[in-house]
Design brief:
358 residues, alpha+beta, 2 domains, seven-stranded antiparallel sheet, six-stranded mixed sheet, 18 strands, 31% helix, globular, S-Me-THD-like_C, DUF917 domain-containing protein
Length: 358
Amino acid sequence: MQARITLDDVAALARGCAVLGTGGGGDVRSGAIAARRAIRERGEVPLVTLGDLPDDALVLPLSGIGAPTVSHEMIHAEDEPVRIKEEIERIFGRGPAAVMSSEIGGANGVAPVAWAARLGLPLLDADAMGRAFPEVQMVSLYVAGIPANLVIMSDAVGNVVTIRPVDGLWSEAIARAVCVASGSSALMADYVLTAKECAGAVIEGTVTRALAIGRATEGAQDPLGALTAELGAVRLLTGKVTDLERRTTGGFARGTVTVEGTGDDRGRTLTLEIQNENLVAVEDGVVRAMVPDLITVVDTQAATAIQTEGLRYGQRVTVLAWPCDPLWRTPKGLETAGPRAFGYDLDYRPVETIAGRA
């Protein structure tokens, strides 16, 4: 029997995607609301694998692009995915066979359920990041060497922009400029490929993984412990947010967050560097975790992830970090989304190595 995303799955999916968002990808609440509404109106969404699709079937990767601080307030219009689908039909002479999340993290992992339902298409159990990243070229397809053949963007007022970039870096530069012109929030499709082309170039099973993460804390007496175990995560610090500097510029939310330890961690301080997502965690001048590994801030009691735009002074939080998909630890992966890709003069060290686990 084919798997389907039902109303009962949305809450767990949203929790899991929030954790995988590492602070970015957009607030899952808006994506969950859209997903529930679309399922009620259009029906449950089939969840398919690449093996379920013909080799020549077109896969439509969709994601919101922009600053999470903006998308939290300016949600996507229901006809944005429809306009992108129509543009694909115009260009390719046929429509897509499935929707895929470009990034499983944050709202961009949940909202594709709504977009797939609106388009009457199944959702592919895969994405192009295994987490959330802030820039367009930071996707597995770019790391796999697939040319950035096409970017289609649509915004809330009805504009549609088609870009033919020469490479992934230009796709980021041009798409970001269009995004800023659209108020720092737009819907985007990039790397429109066949199922055969996606094989080996996308990260498979990530929707299922997000659901498992979201379900790990359901009914748990120790939600934080259950989540940490499910992720195989390192607990970096438990404490409270004591300082927060955040600004929206150039289509990104940037800033720093300071967490001062409480309880057993009293006297310790952890600083997080942010560009939509949590990028680097530093304690007393020593890096405790860094991209492309995942760093997420969660509520200490409920173990629910807190996006960067939701951080507030005084929140009681725990910072977790765990290994990224192996693809990101390859030379091309680190060149694309390692610490130096974000301007940090750091040599990448795996989080488990820093923590003494390997």
